[in-house]
Write a structure and sequence with these properties.
Two copies of one chain form a homodimer. The first copy, chain A, has 689 residues and is α/β, with parallel strands linked by helices. Chain A is 43% helix and 12% strand. Chain A is elongated. Chains A and B meet through helix 6, helix 7, helix 8, helix 14 and helix 17 of A and helix 6, helix 7, helix 8, helix 14 and helix 17 of B.
């Protein structure tokens, strides 16, 4: 039976279009054009297909919706309002105002019903690939015969901007490979971007490209008015059993506006007379604002009920599942609540100086192997550097379509391909599904390729863990193109991100411990290619504070503060200093973010007043001014050479560091001033004010 | 007449393959597999097609070669050696050793004949699009009837890794749009990446994808042995008049090795017995190392002569051109020498406090308009934010294929589309061609999308200029997804990159002045969306020092040091402080990189000892410890709100800053210690040691 649109459908679409115009006009800011063009699609999707329960936006098996063209968020907020989420008409009137529920781009953990933070183009599309992977994986793990707990779809809207971004291209290629038929993407083919007509820069055949990615591609010729065609396209997309679907839908940006089809409707409110004629055109009173006809309100109550009924049905299924599979249900509930298994952290290995030296990437492999058994929610992967990152535990199954015979949907190791940016954004989607802890490997230097996604992990408060190996000039021969110098500063300056650079096995365990316990903070673990000794004086507990004293010394002449592979070199430097009669303390500072959260008292015990503090790190010294008076680092690009030659070249040796420390001690003794810890200088001010 | 490969061709290819094995084995590191697989292609390309003069690697019309899969650089170094560039057999023996001419990945400005720095995957491919654009543009500008000065091709090799990277996808789409038929890309379809067979993550139809991008696509089925097919493919590619060409060439990684076709030949040397059997297989003595048969040496002399003859012919043409078009030739030589026109800087506008307030993006537009007339080498563009970045001067012509009727090849404004990362890498290619100063616009926050390319600008010493508008919470309503917090720290910590955040019109002019005069340093100019007053006390000359005193005050109680839009707010705060009887100095620090290069004496005059220094900037305070004692910044993500509300919310107002300054003054007075400038503390040590 073909779909029969009703009169209310037309009204609802007109309502959404008018609201888009009114909301932007009241805010004097925003993007009305795409919401007006996408109103028919949004209405049909949310009213007839998307299964969600507005009264419980966290229902486990809800369909996920992602607005990758996040600037069109008036549309998303409007749908959330119409369906009865915790978004009101008043919230729409507060669009883009300070601390409103309706910010300029959708933010997860901020607005009810928003799954992921979007706006930076292409990210949402890649997030949706993560959401679809997580759904496949959850189904494989938890579904049982007769109990299809997980079978939700992920729907994503994207525009021309997203289509052009590399992160979306990467994600699309991977989604095609993975045959994610639970993913349905709608490409808003409105031919307009900020520079005007896309013909000035974007003339490729998008549908042919997606066919090349092995997607199922459907075209809707008139997304403005042909409701039947839109409806049928979604039905067909849901029928596809072995591919993700792209529905390319031709729309008119700003549909109804006097300037429809032009970029003038894209990024700024319509003029008042334009809005008036729009309302008249749709048969409404042009004097009224924020019009929502009663019949539309009623219709949306019905659509919401469709979702809540489905949820109620599912709840029954879930209860029965719990009777037959109590262990599985308990496990599922644990994971949905983001609770960690009791005593999980006991699996973390600890080390003594007698244990043999090891690369911290190797130590990380040991931890991941333990964690893979202890934490079924761990979902690993690498951007085609598995053998270098050592991110795959030995008995892992790959996450692959079963037909490939390379793995199956229950697999917990993802082969991301050489796609760092998509990996970062997909991990955000994996987290957002709510049941996984994603980890992803690449070289630290190439986390930079993914910074757009890392930033959104931090902003969204998503627990995503990067296993970033080859963390310095210590990678040696690959040379300056691969040796990070500035990456640590970029990540340390990012709010709500924990950048860890562990110095030995205990510190690696501590980094994982804190990363996993930090439910709302992403972490990047910088790990070495080269071997490191196990330090005397390190422990998981101490390292978990972000910074601690490795070697204490009363009446010290100098403190060396360092991270990662340079800590052991400083330890050796201190032995040389001792021979010269200089008393030096050693501090390891594996994570600034965590250390900064400790009490001032503790921090000043670690980095006290009274003597010079010398920082030692094989990175740019930028940012060390907060902790040390003088800095030993690398304020240039690296070199291609065997790693010990590179270390020597940059004076990152015990003797060079000892020499520098001697100079520092002599210099400040000569000055005779009583030195205050740089840390204390500001911190004491902040504590007092 | 079909191509007839000769015996020496076979020998040359075997030689290249054996050298690849020997070079990696001696270095005990490196990637022999791809060079062995690509040897036939490289040999045929360099011997029969690529026009270059090994004795003058800077010949203006040389064909450009880019190795996007830079890890295969043994191949590039080998070709440079065989042809007689300044790379010797001894240099090959020093592969990946400290300070050798043959680092682990190819570096521009380091090894003779290397055009661009590659290795981070996908970059080189995007660079090649820039090289091809520059060639089209140079031809349109300088060629005359009968004087085809510029008609070179750009040849680029890329592997599966490059193919998967988003930056390459973006660049491919743009190259197709631009119909760059002077670009010929060779895709090394060897089916192997680090995780093993690409079937684990990369199963798309690459050739169909490139057809969708509107590329000319040619397939070579047996790139290991079918020399004729390779030859014919290149001939056909060069015949294509309106599209870039992708030649997809099936090769066997590590061809000849016992492990050929597997990833074990990818990233580490072959074992000794494997190399022995390889040499035997090719009919050489397995005891010999670094074998280069005399006939191969002789043949390559001939190939080199082919290039130098072409260069000699071109020189004649160029001389005749100079007689007929002396002005054009002089201009071309000026640009090739990277000389700026005499007195160009006089076009930079200067301002007085009477001039009206303006957004620094608007001031930048004014400068770019002047520069576009003064500097024909300026090649502008934006990643689809032209109207927001204000990067296009009013009489600009777009760089477009003439058939589109949207511009022509002489156009100096590039519509990059929503492709920030490709824009960054393409700008590197534009610079590398040697005749242009590329500028590219996007929001500062989205420079992060392109950090992989920005880093390579800095490492390569390429003068690339980013026009990064919407530089802070001052962009307002778009909210935290678009408001940079950490971006400045990421860029300031990058070696050899100048990050500018100008405070007014004079500082905008200064930023452009220094950026353009810094021949070996890329710059990022962070510019506001909101209006800024023209400051009393600013000047182009002072701002060009990177930091200077805006308001001096003897016996000051406090110095406020700030950048960009916060400088004027600090100025107002100082007025409030004066009313409270507190004497405050004001320092503007638009560019740390340039300021740090000034004499210690000057820097200590700007940021002196003796009183507290308070930094004020609407960014993460990370990194300010070098310049100030206490920091007023934003160590969290921003907010979606009208910009003045956002500034109030974050206490970025004159009164809030004045209050903080009062607290700072009182706090440190109470302590009674004589404060040293944080800058001085380390700088004096460095000066003395």
């Amino acid at each position: 039976m073909p779909f029969q649109p009703q009169e209310v459908d037309k009204n609802a679409v007109a309502t959404i279009r008018m609201l888009a115009a009114d909301v932007a006009a009241k805010a004097k800011s925003g993007h009305p054009g795409a919401p007006m063009g996408l109103a028919p699609l949004a209405h049909l999707l949310w009213s007839r297909f998307l299964l969600c329960d507005p009264k419980d936006s966290h229902w486990l098996n809800r369909d996920r919706f992602v607005l990758s063209n996040g600037h069109a968020c008036i549309l998303q907020y409007t749908m959330l309002y119409l369906l009865g989420y915790k978004v009101t008409l008043d919230d729409l009137k507060q669009f883009r105002q300070l601390n409103s529920l309706t910010p300029g781009h959708p933010e997860a953990n901020h607005t009810d019903g928003v799954e992921v933070t979007t706006g930076p183009l292409g990210q949402g599309f890649a997030n949706s690939v993560g959401l679809a992977i997580a759904a496949k994986n959850a189904a494989a793990e938890f579904n049982r015969d007769g109990f299809e707990l997980f079978n939700n779809y992920t729907y994503v809207f994207l525009g021309d901007g997203c289509m052009q971004e590399g992160v979306a291209c990467e994600a699309a290629s991977l989604a095609g490979h993975l045959r994610l038929n639970n993913l349905i993407a709608f490409y808003d083919d409105n031919k307009i971007s900020i520079d005007g007509d896309v013909s000035c820069s974007f003339t490729e055949d998008v549908t042919a490209r997606f066919k090349a990615y092995e997607w199922n591609v459907i075209t809707v010729g008139d997304g403005d008015k042909d409701f039947n065609d839109i409806y049928d396209a979604i039905v067909k997309a849901k029928e596809c059993k072995d591919k993700p679907t792209l529905i390319s839908i031709r729309t008119t940006i700003g549909f109804g506006s006097l300037h429809q089809g032009t970029h003038s409707t894209h990024g700024s409110p319509l003029k008042e007379d334009d809005i008036r004629q729009l309302k008249e055109k749709f048969g409404f009173n042009p004097d009224d604002k924020f019009i929502v006809p009663q019949e539309v309100i009623e219709a949306y109550k019905g659509y919401a009920k469709r979702g809540s009924d489905a949820h109620a049905e599912w709840n029954k299924l879930y209860a029965a599942y719990g009777e037959k599979y109590p262990k599985e249900k308990a496990e599922l509930e644990r994971r949905a609540a983001q609770k960690l298994p009791e005593g999980w952290e006991k699996c973390l290995p600890s080390f003594t100086p007698e244990d043999k030296p090891a690369a911290s990437r190797k130590l990380s492999e040991g931890v991941l192997t333990k964690l893979s058994a202890e934490l079924p929610e761990l979902l690993g992967g690498s951007a085609d550097l598995t053998g270098s990152n050592l991110t795959r535990w030995s008995d892992a199954t790959d996450f692959q379509p079963p037909a490939t015979h390379l793995g199956d949907w229950s697999g917990r190791y993802i082969r991301y391909g050489v796609r760092e940016h998509a990996m970062g954004a997909i991990m955000n989607g994996l987290h957002a599904y709510g049941l996984h802890i994603p980890t992803g490997g690449t070289f630290l230097n190439f986390v930079s390729y993914a910074l757009g996604a890392v930033r959104l992990s931090a902003l969204s408060q998503f627990r995503v863990i990067w296993v970033a190996t080859h963390d310095s000039i210590g990678l040696g021969e690959d040379g300056p193109t691969h040796q990070p110098i500035e990456t640590a500063a970029a990540l340390r300056s990012l709010p709500n991100l924990a950048f860890w650079r562990p110095a030995d096995g205990n510190e690696v365990s501590a980094a994982y411990k804190v990363a996993i316990e930090s439910l709302k903070t992403p972490s990047v673990l910088a790990l070495t290619r080269q071997n490191l000794p196990q330090l005397e004086g390190s422990s998981i507990e101490k390292a978990a504070l972000g910074g601690y004293v490795v070697i204490e010394e009363s009446n010290a002449d100098v403190t060396l503060v360092s991270t990662g592979s340079e800590v052991a070199i400083c330890r050796d430097a201190i032995k040389l200093l001792k021979e010269k009669g200089i008393k030096a303390r050693l501090v390891s500072l594996p994570c600034f973010h965590v250390f900064d959260k400790q009490s001032l008292d503790y921090r000043l015990k670690v980095l006290p007043d009274g003597h010079p503090i010398l920082s030692v790190e094989a990175y740019s010294t930028y940012g060390w001014g907060r902790y040390a008076h003088v800095h030993h680092g690398i304020n240039r690009f690296g070199v291609s050479a065997p790693y010990d030659d590179a270390y020597k070249f940059f004076d990152m040796t015990d003797s060079a560091i000892a020499d520098k420390a001697v100079n520092v001690v002599n210099h400040f003794k000569k000055l005779g001033t009583s030195l205050e810890s740089p840390l204390g200088l500001e911190a004491k001010f902040l504590a007092a004010n």
